[in-house]
Amino acid sequence: MLEISGALAQSNPITYPQTRRTDQIDDYHGTKVADPYRWLEDDRSAETEAWVKAQNAVTFGYLEQIPYRKQLENRLEQIINYPRYSAPGRKGEWFYFYKNDGLQNQSVLYRQKGLDGKPDVVIDPNKLAADGTTRLTSFSLSKDGRYAAYALSKAGSDWQEIFVMDMQTLQTLPDKLEWVKFTGAAWQGDGFYYSRYDKPAAGQELSSKNEFMKVYFHRKGTPQTQDQLIYEDKAHPLRYFFPQTTEDERFLILNISEGTDGSEIWYKDAQSGDKEFKRLFEGFKYNYSVIDNVGDALLVYHNNGAPNYKVSKVLPKTGAISDLIPEKPEKLDEAHTAGGKLFVNYLKDVTSRIYVYDLNGRLENEVKLPGLGTVSGFGGERDDKFVFYTFTSFTFPATIYRYDIATQKTTLFRAPEVTFRPDDYETKQVFFNSKDGTRVPMFLTYRKGLKLDGSNPTMLYGYGGFNISLTPGFSALLIPFLEQGGIYASMNLRGGSEYGETWHEQGMKLKKQNVFDDCIAAAEYLIAQKYTSPQKLALRGGSNGGLLVGAVINQRPDLFQVAIPQVGVMDMLRFHKFTVGWGWVSDYGSSDNPEEFKAIYQYSPIHNIRQGINYPATMITTADHDDRVVPAHSFKYAATLQEKYKGPNPVLIRIETNSGHGASNTKKNIETMADIYAFMLWNMGVKSLK
Predict the structure, then answer these.
(1) pLDDT over 60 (residue 5)
(2) For range 201-216, the mean pLDDT
């Protein structure tokens, strides 16, 4: 229980639940490694469930004593309560889009006939579960728009079920496809291709290793038991298979990968009557992605011989390949086709630049954007006359624009009606040097008129992995923190793709320490420039970013007052043994490899917690249905940190129910952020809100 005398104080002792230790020891290439909390990996056992209940009792007991916790939750609820739309997508005469009225737990899918038509509800996920935790994860229309395949996920799990809807009646048909994960529906004729796994053992649905993915074809109106097996690979259990079809449904593309980096492409050409798949690109050294076809040719986005990526035209019959859009100094981040054009998104110092090319690779024009920020959209069908895109930045709420292809003109389509003043805040991009001299960018967002006196509460956020870029984007949930004089600092660490494959490779495998060095340098920069001080600095990250937090506070606990590792990969020796963790070996390496084990073991968060040092106030977050980074990572990390750290700062774990790798609904997202801000500010010495 939590011992409280009067007002909550940081010096109050916390009595943590007792966590049973075992004498489990593993041998890694001659190195003996203790794993005393291995039993917490069984997240469905009665003992683990009792431990979770006891830990949550301590955590929520602590949080409930923070006087402004509810005030923060109310402000978050108030600030996010405005209508939020997605950009529309056209199919025939219908336009489809998502809308959230403000506080709806899930966004609702609508459609309307023409841009001036009356919106009709297609799917409202809020009606599918009493607690609002069933999500609509994908929606794919057949070529003629007559039918749609849509996928639902329950309680935040990566597992999905696919259903089929008749778009004339908006009635869901009897079709139901189970044990589906990490796939869409690639339509061809009267059915679609999808990937699935075999049914896992009872009780192990959220933790067992996912192996032997298979590709099936489902014909509309038939049971799943009749689905046709299209592709399997019995020799390689740890591979992903992603089917896709070109817009004209001529080519069936099979994207194969062994993890999050590197791919291989196979194809079937319906026009040639191919019975078997043929290999287009051998894997897994480079990343390849088919954009679409132009007649006999495929347009391929890839980084073979181009670390910053390029687009090539490939003739599958002959294997002839030619560059359509050559590599540039900037990262080519995305490429889409619509209306007979190629829309290409480049990243220049982590902000979008959009260029339009014809299908022969001739540059036609640049699309003028509202400012420096992030763009999404521009995809569409071949006969589109216009497309939509969304622009956002840290102080620019997501705004939808319409681009006319013939006139090359952009017009505002839909601006958000927010209840606060984004103009009160500003964003500044700064650059700092890492330990090895590498120049690293970071965005700082704060209220205008900020004083550089070292007293500003600052939340340092990073990811640094898996070729993922942290580009500027608006979140209303940041505003309550900024209103308290806070600074939000978003780091663009190595391991991401902000500067192409070279940037990614500098943060992979044996070079992962570069990511942590970048983060440490960012913290040192903020302190040296008097944006903040160690007493006012929090480090936060999720998933691979949770690993970042755990590793960095082991190495430099003196830089931070607060640490928030969320759904983190904390046991680097065993991550590949659960669900799809094996897919991360391409980025992290594996403890099964002697050289990679040595590198991983030096930074693995659980294995480098030391006694006798003062750790920041730490609140770990995870969820019971996280079947991507299983909660055992956070459970074992919390138990180890509580065991070894004897200082005055709290070490808490907040375990959400009916939620997954991300918040499963709006309500849970608000509650989690309120608790993070309350914990953060309270441990920075903030006694009341402004």
Answers:
(1) no
(2) 94
pLDDT at 668 over 90: yes
Domain for residue 405, yes or no?
A: yes
**Residue 618, strand partner residues:** 563, 651
Token pair listed for 371 = 């400012």
Cα–Cα distances in Å, from 399 out to 85, 126, 374, 480?
9, 24, 11, 21
- The sheet carrying 288-294 orders its strands as 288-294, 297-302, 310-315, 320-325
| Catalytic annotation, residues | 543, 661
Write out pLDDT tens, residues 528-578: 999 999 999 999 999 999 999 999 999 999 999 999 999 999 999 999 999
The conformation of residue 182, written as its DSSP 8-state character, comes to S
Average pLDDT, the chain: 96
Residues 268, 251: contact at Cβ < 8 Å? yes
> Where do runs of H (alpha helix) occur along 438-543?
479-483, 500-505, 513-528
Same domain membership, residue 429 and residue 396: no
* Six-digit token string for 509: 């495998």
Q: Can you tell me the distance from the alpha carbon of 227 to that of 216, in angstroms, rounded to the nearest whole number? A: 6
Instruction: Look at residues 417, 448, 466 and tell me which one is the last residue of a structural domain.
Output: 417
**What does the pLDDT look like over 424-470, one tens digit per residue?**
999 999 999 999 999 999 999 999 999 999 999 999 999 999 999 99
Residues 205, 210: Cα–Cα separation, whole Å: 9
**Residue 58 burial by CB count (10 A; 0-12/13-18/19+): exposed, middle or buried?**
buried
pTM assigned to the model: 0.95
How far apart CA 269 and CA 116 sit, in angstroms, is 39
Are 452 and 404 members of one domain?
no
- Give the three-class secondary structure for 269: strand
Q: 396 and 460 in one domain? A: no
